[in-house]
Amino acid sequence: MMVTVHGTSIKKWIIFILFTFISTITVVATMTATSTYRLSSSSVHEMTNRFAAESLVYVLSFENVYFREMLPKEKQQLPYSTYFFQMTTSVNFHDPRSLLGRELPGFSLYDSEIILAGEGTNFTNIPYESPPPLEVLLAEREAAQEQLQEEETPPAPAPSQTTGGKKVVYIYHTHTQESYLPALKGVTNPNFAHHPTVNVTKVGKKLGEELEKRGIGVVVDTTDFIGKLLKNNMEYYQAYDMSRKTVVEAMANNRDVQYLIDIHRDSRRRNDTTVTINGVDYARVSFIIGGENAKYEKNLQLVTKLHELLEKKYPGLSRGTFEKKGVGTNGKFNQDLSENAILIEFGGVDNTFQELYRTASAVADVFSEYYWQAEKVNATQPAEKK
């Protein structure tokens, strides 16, 4: 025998389930208030975020049809079966990460979002950093010095404009010891691509040199924040706490600083982090935005422009812009300290320093173009106000 359930009954059941769910959370939170195991705000946030805003508006429209007019046409009728399945399992058919993120151990990319996608970028190859085991950081490794040599280039002409001795860019490296396998003798495991001296600071120095050639004053801070963590028996995730203090102090001591650039290295392999432009290999870059920083919009405007300039002048060099937030990530990356704070992933574990140096030159090229154009705009603003 077939039983027909009227739409009104289904609506009542959905509302009943929603209120039961909310009541359960409230009761559990109350019961655990004095317990060692508490229901954290992040847990509640994660649970409630599993439901799309459209779903809530749709349920409210059962009582007031005007709510439904706020929804896009394709969202004004939601299939009950899909909605109930998503509510009970937290699996969204439109986002495979909702399943993978809960089934695969260490699926730390779940809270990452692609803001701007470069060539070939999708959710299967989002940039990520793999924290090294403690024994890796403590181990001594020999570097291949020939890998560190730069390609010979003709002397650069004197820049047509300069910052007049002002150091307007501050470059630092929160995960200081992130390194690259080709520069480490006998090391093939990507998890071991770390070194106390042969690391991303080499890239930072090269970027600083290239910016100076273009008339932009730079401070390159090579403080070993990871070494400090080890010395103070701190955890790897506390690296941003360590670097933040140094950045704040640097900004206080130098009022000319306008831009903060934090340089990192991706853990992806060569096929995702390398591009050939005019027959020459470059290490690709990724821009990371902390989704929980107060200056998010301004920082996003800056990296969006840099991404667009790279796409125009060095097609394929930028892997895109990615937002990271939520449990398991910092969410700020010190970007709340400035409207012009950038976190750039230079290459991956398999890139050579020659490729990285070429990329540093390319990034300096587009950054200087952006910088001088912005300075020109800023110089005309007072005259426009008069």
Automatic annotation (TrEMBL):
Keywords, in A-Z order: Membrane, Transmembrane, Transmembrane helix
One Pfam family this sequence matches: SpoIIP
Record field: transmembrane: 12-33
InterPro entries listed in its UniProt record: Spore_II_P
Highest rank taxon of the organism: Bacteria
Signal peptide: none
Chain segments carrying region Disordered: 143-163
Gene3D superfamilies reported in the protein's UniProt record: Zn-dependent exopeptidases
Protein name: Stage II sporulation protein P
